[in-house]
Specification:
The chain contains 4 helices and no strands. By secondary structure, the protein is mostly helical. The chain has one domain. The longest helix has 30 residues.
Amino acid sequence: MLQRIQTVWMFLAIIGAIFLFITGQDFPLFGPVPFISIVCVALVLFGFISILSYKNRKRQILLNHISIFINALLLGLLAYWLLNLSGGIDFPEKGIEPIFPLLSIICLFIANLFIRKDDRLVKSVDRLR
């Protein structure tokens, strides 16, 4: 159901991807290809599909695991990019962009915990019937 707590956590992960999309528009990763934007759009789509597939908890967990994997790769790329930046006059601020994938990973992990809790509850009710 849409009013469950895991929906809130998945929505917070989507908000993290949207914030990364907004703040990460000018990354020079991979040349002229807007790689960060494409990955953020994919994460938002995975999140909404996961939220809307509330009747199929296994699919929700699978989509959340895929999103966690993509966020981990994105976190690694952003950390690599930030470590290779020069901190001189041209680019004095390094940015907070790696925070958003990290928060999304945490939110998706907590959402998976609540999805598994709901799955156990449904299975226990089925045993009582």
